[in-house]
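Section handout 9: paired folding examples.
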Amino acid sequence: MTFVTFFALNNGLPQFQDAAVRQALYLGLDRDTINRDLFYNANVPTESFLPQENWAYNPNLPRHEYDPDRAARVLDDAGWRRGRDGVRVKNGVRLEFSTSTVAGNHLREQVQQFLQQTWQPLGVKMTIQNFPAAVMWGDFWRLSEFNTSIVGSIYPIASDPDVSDRLGSWAIPKRAGAGSNNIQYVNPEVDQLLRDSVGLVDREARKRNYWRIQEIVRTDLPFFTIHQTRMAEGTKANLIGYEANVNYRSNAWNINTWYWRA
């Protein structure tokens, strides 16, 4: 199964409800350096929450651009002014937040430290607050108590691109008591497209709708994609019948057809 690694925002927080902040942070995210120097280009850059192998994946989304000068201008134009300590403020809200992941995940911890350093010159103060897995993925994540997080997620269910449980406003567990929209993303057009698409039989019509959803989410930036994980597995040369399938958690999905070549 293919994971996409995200820098997830808690969109219920006031600083992230300003689209200019989300745009500036993404412009100030040096994703190429992260993927090259920390992950040794072992993964695939992506702009979508759907894996690139999915039939509804939209390949035409704008590619991420690292431009810290433009990021600073976006914040200036949106009225985020630097305070005495260098941290930007607007209407009494400081551009300050914490980020969390599982303590001991050294690669993600390095990503956190890199982002902390690269966003600081923009007037952004980010602190690091990591937890054991049992705490991180408990109510802290489920009830959207985090500010931001680095998380690997699988959005579709097998090959079906319906992501209602992830992006539907009715699936925010903090409000509804159930669902997986922990980032508290709300967009009425996305809601309508999700409702319209789930029961469509015409695959091309569904595909058009899911392409549009990906376009909206790429514009809204409720999270920042870092990469799609490239899953690597090894097999022996005389194992016949093994086939990788991105829609399964285990590539033993067709194990009944395997055999050893003598």
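Moving on to protein 2 of 2.
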Amino acid sequence: MKKQIASNAAPKAVGPYSQGVQAGDFLFASGQIPLDPATGEIVDGGIELQAERVFLNLQAVLNEADLDFSNVVSATVYLADINDFATVNGIYSNYFTGEILPARCAFQVAALPKQSKLEISCVAYKG
């Protein structure tokens, strides 16, 4: 069983994809960039404000599927500048807590949509 997940508290998809797809007990959340859902624009400010917005966007998608960050089993972090890793990692650790943390990879990419500084996608498990 597949179900589209869409939250008004997260930015609308900027292409032909879903914010999230629930397949059985798994939710596959599309990569979120720091778009303000109200304006559709990248939030002003540095990497800290952009990272916070990304996590709020992910949280909205997770919550729409009755999940939260404790359900996340895997996360992928895309950075425009690997030098932002420590800052993003610090903010990441505010959202992912507990005994079993998600598997993760993080790496620098050549460019991200709308000149974002980061994008994060994740997979969550409801079981």
